[in-house]
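Project outcomes to date are best conveyed with an example. Our students and postdoctoral researchers have been running inverse folding experiments weekly, and each run begins with a structure described purely in tokens. The record below, which covers 240 residues, was selected by the lab manager from last quarter's runs and is presented without edits.
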């Protein structure tokens, strides 16, 4: 997949999700099923395809970068309120200052860092050309953008500020791709391999969290379980 097309997809999707939330009613159960499917698919693609290929290309310190990405996501989620995996916690605004409480700048910054870091490895044509991985990350972006747009809507943020926030979030991954393209050209394949390992660590944290959270209180839910199985099966059958 070409670099301009990747940038357009990562830029368009959050804005499209924001428009959907603004003009249509979102069914929470459908969003949870989408989360379960995307989490299982992303986990399968990452474990079955991306990690083995990355270790084949460069096994030196890959594990350390994966762990670093996992721990980075742990830190980011202290500030993001779990929006990466569909949480929509927000407080109603009061007297014009509630928007800042509903979506603090640290929350937006953590979401920006998350998306920016995810975008960097797509500067590598091998990663950007892996349709399964691209699809998995985009599927993960969709409920994430829906959750962000829902938080903004519930907090009473004005239309202008809401769209500006979504636009800033939408630009994070494309900026990460451009950053990876520039630094990859300067520092070579090792930089892009490290960027991919870092992103994989973050995605492993998110995908496993999503799967665990789709079974609250450890109660069996047939629809969610079947959705997870479908996502996993699709990941298995999208090998090269």
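After processing, the design step wrote out the following sequence:
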């Amino acid at each position: 997949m070409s670099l301009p097309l990747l940038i357009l997809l990562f830029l368009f999707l959050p804005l499209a999700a924001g428009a959907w939330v603004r003009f249509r009613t979102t069914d929470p159960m459908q969003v949870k099923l989408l989360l379960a499917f995307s989490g299982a698919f992303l986990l399968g693609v990452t474990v079955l395809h991306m990690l083995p290929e990355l270790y084949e290309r460069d096994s030196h310190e890959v594990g350390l970068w994966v762990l670093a990405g996992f721990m980075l996501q742990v830190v980011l989620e202290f500030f993001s309120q779990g929006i990466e995996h569909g949480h929509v916690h927000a407080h109603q605004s009061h007297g014009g200052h509630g928007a800042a409480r509903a979506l603090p700048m640290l929350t937006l910054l953590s979401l920006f860092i998350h998306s920016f870091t995810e975008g960097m490895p797509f500067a590598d044509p091998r990663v950007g050309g892996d349709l399964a991985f691209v699809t998995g990350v985009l599927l993960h972006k969709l409920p994430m953008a829906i959750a962000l747009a829902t938080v903004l809507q519930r907090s009473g943020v004005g239309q202008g500020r809401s769209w500006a926030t979504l636009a800033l979030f939408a630009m994070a991954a494309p900026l990460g791709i451009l950053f990876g393209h520039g630094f990859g050209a300067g520092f070579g394949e090792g930089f892009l391999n490290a960027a991919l390992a870092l992103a994989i660590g973050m995605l492993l944290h998110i995908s496993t969290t999503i799967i665990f959270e789709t079974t609250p209180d450890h109660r069996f839910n047939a629809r969610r379980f079947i959705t997870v199985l479908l996502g996993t099966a699709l990941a298995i059958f999208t090998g090269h």
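Confidence is low (pLDDT under 50) at residues 90-102. The longest helix spans residues 28-57. The training component of this project remains on track.
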